[in-house]
Amino acid sequence: MNAKELRELGLTDEALIEKIIVSHGQDIEKHKGLAKAAEDRAAALEAQLGEKDKAVTQAQTEAQAQVSKLKLNTAIERALERAKAKNLKAARAILDETDLALAEDGTVTGLDERVAKVAADNAYLFGDDKPAETKVIPRVVSKTTNTPPTPGDPLTDAIRKGAGLPPVKVR
């Protein structure tokens, strides 16, 4: 608003027109300051939003990498289990895991060949389908069963003495 517009509205007092123009100018400056503050606040919020977007993107990338690593580790362990590894940690320590990567379909290219090579080179770490041989331990069986020991028998007395038992008493 300017002095010409105020005169056209019917104001004739120049002092009043000057006061209105000054007051109007102060209001305009006040609103310009508020608008500038709002723009600054909006810019700060946009910057914070950009930082948060970067943090979210980074967290998603890290989570995806962890999931991929977990899937790869699981695939390696399953391959070792299929090969009947007796000790997964020991077999995995020998396994060359360089350049192993999880494909989109969840498979790991070249893994089975590497596991087979480790199994062939380190057969002691991998089991076979044969059951373990059981050793037969001979034991002495008494000729008579359920018969009480004979009092005064030197063999019975010696066995009882060796076992820390008292000799058989006659009833």
Description:
By secondary structure, the protein is mainly alpha-helical. It has one domain. The chain is 60% helix and 0% strand. It is built from five helices and no strands. It has helices at residues 3-8, 14-82, 88-94, 111-121, 154-162. The longest helix has 69 residues, at 14-82. The mean pLDDT is 83.
Query: What is the ordering of alpha helices and beta strands?
Result: HHHHH
Total number of distinct structural domains: 1
Mean pLDDT equals 83
Sheet-strand content, in percent, reads under 5%
Distance between the termini: 137 Å
Spans of at least 5 consecutive residues with low confidence: none
Describe the global form: elongated
The biggest beta sheet is recorded as: none
Instruction: Name the assembly state.
Output: single chain
* Helix-strand category: mainly alpha
Which keywords apply here?
single chain; 171 residues
Q: TL;DR?
A:
The protein is mostly helical.
What topology does this entry show?
Layout: H1 3-8, H2 14-82, H3 88-94, H4 111-121, H5 154-162
